[in-house]
Amino acid sequence: MFRKMGCYCMPLSGYTPEDVVRYRLGKARDCLQDAKMPGVSFQTAANRSYYCIFSAMRAILALDRFDSKKHSGIIAAFRKDYIRTGVFPADFSDIIKNAFDIRLDSDYEDFYLISKVEVAAQVKNAEIFLEAVEKYVGERIQSQ
After folding, report:
1. Residue 116: pLDDT above 90?
2. Which strand (E) or helix (H) includes residue 66?
3. How far, in Å, CA of 83 to CA of 129, rounded?
4. Contact 122/45 with Cβ under 8 angstroms?
5. d(Cα 71, Cα 88) in Å, to the nearest integer?
6. pLDDT surpasses 60 at 82
7. What span, in angstroms and rounded, lies between the C-alpha atoms of 29 and 112?
8. Is residue 128 within 8 Å of 53, Cβ to Cβ?
9. Does the domain made of 14-143 have the CATH classification 1.10.287.1490?
């Protein structure tokens, strides 16, 4: 394992990168499903939407055998390797930032209120993000 500022190349311990990708995409789908559950609180929906996006980013980075102990490391690597290179549109960077900021505020700020409209946008953005990642991953795995 190679370490540099909290980042490392994953030891796969008997799993292929594709196994890790499938597992992480499954987590992302579960998070999205949780965010869409009837009666879920707005804060929980915002949290689960962010973790859908986060798990999807980690899934792609697993193909590169990259992981990080920090959310900021995952976000920075995804932006550098997949947004700045044009694999995904630049507005995905805004989706990530908004989801991250709202999740932090709703989890850690006292008296933070998130509106139904904001939550609906978060959930929709997570869905768009996950669909794009799943499409890309499927094409990339198929081409290998």
Report:
1. yes
2. strand 66-68
3. 12
4. yes
5. 19
6. yes
7. 26
8. no
9. no
Tokens representing 128 are 């768009």
- pLDDT score of 119 more than 90: yes
Distance CA 46, CA 103 (A): 6
3 token code pair = 């370490």
Which residue is listed with tokens 């990642």?
133
pLDDT in tens, 89-109: 999 999 999 999 999 998 899
**Alpha carbon distance 54, 97 (integer Å):** 11
Q: What are the sequence ranges of the domains in the chain? A: 14-143
- In this prediction, what percent of the chain has a pLDDT beyond 90? 83
pTM of the predicted protein model: 0.90
Helices vs. strands in the chain: H and E counts, helices first = 5, 3
Cα–Cα distance between 28 and 13 in angstroms, integer?
22
The span from the CA of 45 to the CA of 37, in Å, is: 8
Closest CA to 66 of 54, 56, 78, 55: 78
Q: Are 24 and 62 in contact (CB under 8 A)?
A: yes
Do residues 47 and 107 touch, judged by C-beta distance below 8 A? Answer: yes
Q: Which two tokens stand for residue 39?
A: 């009666």
Tokens of 120: 């609906």
